[in-house]
Structures are given as C-alpha cells and as structure tokens.
Amino acid sequence: RGATVDPRAIPSSLKGSYSYHNHPAKDTWYSFSAEDAAFFIDTQEAYSKASDHRYQYVMKRTKETAALSYDEVYNKFNQIFSEETREKAWNEEIDMDFDGFHETMKVLSRELEFEYERKKKEEIE
Which residues pair with 49 in a beta bridge? Predict the structure, then answer.
C-alpha cells in the first residue's frame, strides 16, 4: 500500500473537529474504509470528508450518533461488508469494486445514526 497516516497518533482530542483526506487512485475503494469510520466515531469528529479521483464522500455526526469504540465500529463495518455487502455482490446488485465500501457505509450510517453521502465529482463541480 502507499503512504498512509495513522491519525490515532495525533496527541490532542479531535472531538468536534472537521477533517479531510484523500485516497490515491491505486489505494481507493471509492468510499470510507473501516479504519476511517472507526476513527470518526471513536474520536467523536463532527465531520469527515474524503475523496479519490472519482468520488467525494462525507460523514456527519448527529445528536443520535452512537458512541462506540474504534474496535466496535471497525468490527461492525467488517461484519456488514462480509455478510450484507458480499450478498449484494453475489446477487449482482452491486459492483463490489466500486460500491462495496459505499454499500457498507450506507448500512453502517443507518445503524450508528450518522449522515453519510457519496457523490461523483462531476456532480459536485
């Protein structure tokens, strides 16, 4: 994998913070990863935005957003991906390469009560 940053190494609290990062074309799943979602929930960020060469995606905390640990969110993401998302791909409802993490994030955001959206870049500009 390419160069990565471990945001957990930041020594101060990120509660209520806004963050932005990007996913290089060779290292993207076209949405947030399990690590991204777990970090967002665990650190209590208010807003997280990321993008790659095709999409821009956003997570926003709500008053109802679950308070879970990094490991709980990470494991929940992977459980949804392994069960629900793989079934959608198996049934040819989604293209796993482009929509696997996106579909997982849609379910995770409903279950943990945060806002999530993904838009193609040409829809934004």
Answer: 20, 58
Q: How far apart, in whole angstroms, are the C-alpha atoms of residue 50 and residue 63?
A: 22
Using CA atoms, how far apart are residues 46 and 58, in angstroms rounded to an integer? 11
Residue 46 is given by DSSP the state: S
Taking only the tens place, the pLDDT of each residue in 66-76 is 999 999 999 99
Q: How far is residue 14's CA from residue 2's CA, in Å, rounded to a whole number?
A: 25
| Distance from C-alpha of 79 to C-alpha of 91, rounded to nearest angstrom | 18
Task: Give the Cα separation of 26 and 8 in Å (integer).
Answer: 23
Q: How many CA atoms lie within 13 A of 96 on its CB side?
A: 12
pLDDT at 8 over 70: no
Helix (H) / strand (E) containing 73: helix 70-80
Q: What angle do CA 121, 26, 109 make, to 5 degrees?
A: 55
Which one is predicted more confidently, 9 or 16?
16
For residue 9, give every residue at least 6 positions away whose Cβ sits within 8 Å of its Cβ, in sequence order, or none.
none
Count the alpha carbons within 13 Å of 17 in the hemisphere toward its beta carbon: 14
